[in-house]
Amino acid sequence: MNQKTCKNAIEALLFASGDPVTPEKLAEAIGAELHMVEKLLVELRDEYDVKDRGLCLLRLEDRWQMASRPQYGEMVKRLMDNRRNVPLSPAALEVLAIIAYNQPVSRGFIEQVRGVDSSSIVSKMIDKGLIEEAGRLNLPGHPISFRTTDVFLRTFGITSLEDLPPLHQNEAPQLSMRADEKE
Hints:
- The protein has 183 residues and is of the alpha+beta class.
- The protein is built from nine helices and five strands, in the order H-H-H-E-E-H-H-E-H-H-E-E-H-H.
- The chain has helices at residues 3-17, 23-30, 34-50, 73-83, 90-102, 107-114, 119-127, 150-155, 179-182, and strands at residues 55-60, 63-68, 105-106, 131-136, 144-148.
- The strands form two sheets. Strands 3-5-4 form a three-stranded antiparallel β-sheet.
- Strand 4 (131-136) and strand 5 (144-148) form a beta hairpin.
- The radius of gyration is 24 Å and the shape is elongated.
- The model is unreliable at 175-183 (pLDDT under 50).
């Protein structure tokens, strides 16, 4: 394995690990000499510094770790707060499914389908960024309507609502209904 390939492999391993790794473990993983791995780690760190990239390599005593630069810490924190893997209750999943397949929908529509008050679940889904207000429906009282967000798509690993599984085996989901059909 040439030096460029070894350096790329070290970078990939540090990225994939997420945790600090010793040069010995890196050398063992790529099948290279320890002194070469140590030299390549320093070169890689210097390359990140010279190119003023968003990432850096940190030396933590006898271990190395890939990290984001401190000046991007607040942005990374915001992203990670949105991506926390907090399990959703069956009721929350039910509300999300109702919204995803029928959006935009009012809270009244959600409650009509579920048969129970859903205001606290809707509020929690808004707080998590999974749904958002989508304006007001042209119905008596002009209720607020809700739709899913990009956070919803990322959370469930889909690129669009068309990727949702069909509601019934031989039917595609009906993704957009007129507001007057929903109430």
